[in-house]
Amino acid sequence: MKKIPKFKSLKEERDFWDTHSVADYLKELKETGEIVFERHPLKRNFQMRLDDTTINKLKKLAKAKGVDVSTLIRRWIREHLDKELKTA
């Protein structure tokens, strides 16, 4: 029986599963129960212009984190807003 290795990073885990089948590791997996995904309705669009270098860096980082660019940017905005408002 194959064992799922310990991963040092999300990227390492992602690379592993890109080249291996989960079917080979079914005996190691455990049921965790129901997973619920919540989406907060987005009310409005906000548009900004960014240079190609910045966009490419955002795409690369978002891919490494396993999210899309807009999710990464929204997360940063929320985190920084909360931080700034606490110190204001």
What does this molecule look like?
By secondary structure, the chain is mostly helical. The chain has helices at 10-19, 52-65, 69-87. Helix 2 (52-65) crosses helix 3. The longest helix has 19 residues, at 69-87. The protein is elongated, with a radius of gyration of 18 Å. The model has no long low-confidence stretch (mean pLDDT 88).
Short description:
This protein is mainly alpha-helical and 88 residues long. The protein has helices at residues 10-19, 52-65, 69-87.
Which SSEs are present, and which pair or pack?
Blueprint: H1 10-19, H2 52-65, H3 69-87
Helix coverage percent: 40-55%
Order of helices and strands: HHH
Low-confidence stretches: none
Mean pLDDT: 88
Number of helices: 3
Intertermini distance: 56 Å
The amount of beta strand, in percent, is under 5%
**What global shape is seen?**
elongated
